[in-house]
Design goal:
Order of helices and strands: HEHEHEHHEEEHEEEHEHHEEEHEHH
Helix content: 40-55%
Number of strands: 14
Oligomer: single chain
Largest sheet: 8 strands, parallel, barrel
Structural class: alpha/beta
C-alpha cells in the first residue's frame, strides 16, 4: 500500500512538472511570437521639434544682441517670446524685430500685448483701445506672428511673493496670502521692495485698494466679454491666436478686487465666451496646480476644445490652494510633468512651450550678476528630455 501510494505521488509530481514545463514553454513561445509580430516603432534620432510638436521656447527682448541670441541657440532654443511694443502694433514696427531674430536662427512665436487699462476697468476710452488691439492683430498676422498673449488683472498681487530656499540653498519663489513680517532689505522681500514702509509688514490679503478702485468679478467678466466679442472675430479671420494667462498668483482678492481667472471654472467660462480657437489660454501646469485643480484634467479639457494657444511648463508644491505654495524645480514638484508633455505631444500641440521661472542658482548670482541663464538652461534641458521621451514612445 505504501509503495503504491509513493509511486502515485511520484507519478503525479512528474506529470505536474511536465504540464508546467509544457505550459511555460508554450507561453514563452506565444509571447515570443507576439513580440516578433508586434510592429516596432522606429525613432529617428536626434528627436527634434517638428510641425506638429511643441516648440521649446525661451524669453528674449526685442532689442536682444546677437551675442545673447547665440547663448539661446547654444542650449537648443529655436523659438523666442517677448513683450511687444506699445499699442497699436504696425507691420513696419514688428517686421524688423522678426527679421533680426530670424537672421540669428530664431523664430519669434509669441508676443505679449498690454496697455489697455480702460478695457479692463470698463472706463471711457475702451473702444479706442480695442481698435488699437485690432490693428495690432492685423499687424501680427502680416508678419507671421501666430500667438498674442495677454493678462486681464484688476491687480496682480505680487505683494504676496517672497524668496524661500530649497535644495542646496537654491532660491524658490513662494506665495503666502497671509505672510507678514521679515527684513525689507532681504531677498525674501524681492517683490516688496518698492512698497511704502507702512505696507511692508502687511499681509497681502489685508492690503488696501489701489487708485484704480475695486471691482467685483462680474464687473470684470462684463468687461472681458465686451473685449473678446470685439477682437476674437478679427483674430480668427487673421489666423492669430489669443492666449490669456490665468491669474498668477490666483488669490481670491487682490488689493480689494475680485479676480476672474483664479479657478478652473473661470477658465471654462472664459473659453466659452466666444467659440473660437482664437479665444484660447496659456495652459500653465504650475498655476493649474496652485488653484487646487488636477493639471492633467485642465489640460484635457482645454485641449479637447483646441483652446491651448501657449504653454507655461513649470512645477510647484501647494500647501493651501490659491493661498500658499512654493514654485520649485521642474523635477521636484507634485505635477506629473512627463504626462503633461505626453498629452501635449499626443494632442499634436504645435505652439510655444515655455519652461519658465528658473530657480535662483548660486552660479548665476556669482557669474551673471543675478541673471537666470544657468537656471534657464536647466529648465530647457529638462523640457527637451521630457519631449524626446514622449516622442519616442
Amino acid at each position: 500500500m505504501k509503495d503504491n501510494r509513493r509511486d502515485f505521488i511520484k507519478k503525479g509530481a512528474s506529470l505536474a512538472a511536465a504540464i508546467s514545463v509544457t505550459g511555460l514553454t508554450a507561453c514563452t513561445q506565444t509571447a515570443s511570437i507576439e513580440s516578433e509580430n508586434k510592429p516596432k516603432r522606429k525613432v529617428q534620432w536626434p528627436i527634434t521639434e517638428g510641425p506638429d510638436t511643441p516648440k521649446l521656447t525661451l524669453s528674449s527682448r526685442p532689442d536682444a544682441t546677437p551675442e545673447s541670441m547665440q547663448k539661446l541657440k547654444q542650449i537648443g532654443v529655436d523659438y523666442v517670446l517677448m513683450s511687444g511694443p506699445a499699442l497699436p502694433w504696425t507691420e513696419s514696427g514688428l517686421r524688423p524685430i522678426m527679421d533680426r531674430f530670424k537672421a540669428e536662427g530664431l523664430t519669434v512665436i509669441n508676443m505679449m500685448f498690454s496697455g489697455f487699462p480702460n478695457v479692463i476697468y470698463g472706463r471711457e476710452g475702451r473702444d479706442e483701445e480695442i481698435e488699437k488691439v485690432k490693428a495690432s492683430i492685423l499687424a501680427a498676422s502680416a508678419v507671421g506672428l501666430p500667438i498674442m498673449e495677454y493678462n486681464f488683472y484688476a491687480h496682480r498681487l505680487t505683494e504676496g511673493y517672497y524668496r524661500s530656499f530649497g535644495r542646496g540653498g537654491a532660491g524658490y519663489t513662494s506665495f503666502d496670502y497671509s505672510r507678514t513680517g521679515g527684513n525689507p532689505d532681504g531677498l525674501e522681500f524681492m517683490y516688496r521692495k518698492s512698497l511704502p514702509a507702512e505696507e511692508m509688514n502687511t499681509a497681502a490679503k489685508d492690503m488696501g485698494p489701489l487708485p484704480d478702485g475695486t471691482f467685483t468679478s462680474e464687473q470684470l467678466w462684463d468687461n472681458i466679454t465686451y473685449f473678446l466679442k470685439a477682437i476674437v472675430p478679427v483674430a480668427e479671420k487673421a489666423g492669430v491666436r489669443l492666449a490669456l494667462h490665468p491669474n498668477d498668483p490666483p488669490a481670491p482678492i487682490s488689493r480689494g478686487s475680485e479676480q476672474i481667472m483664479g479657478t478652473f471654472e473661470d477658465w471654462k467660462r472664459l473659453v466659452n465666451i466666444v467659440d473660437s480657437p482664437s479665444n484660447g489660454m496659456t495652459y500653465d501646469s504650475g498655476v493649474s496646480n496652485e488653484i487646487g485643480a488636477d493639471p492633467l484634467e485642465v489640460l484635457d479639457y482645454l485641449s479637447s476644445l483646441d483652446r491651448i494657444n501657449h504653454v507655461h511648463y513649470r512645477n510647484c508644491i501647494v500647501q493651501t490652494p490659491r493661498l500658499k505654495y512654493d514654485e520649485v524645480f521642474p523635477d521636484n514638484g507634485t505635477v506629473d510633468m512627463f504626462t503633461v508633455m505626453q498629452k501635449l505631444v499626443n494632442a499634436k500641440y504645435k505652439y510655444a512651450l515655455y519652461p519658465e521661472h528658473p530657480r535662483a542658482l548660486t552660479h548665476d548670482l556669482e557669474h551673471s550678476g543675478g541673471g537666470e541663464y544657468t537656471g534657464l538652461a536647466y529648465n530647457m534641458a529638462y523640457a527637451r528630455a521630457m519631449m524626446q521621451a514622449a516622442l519616442s514612445l
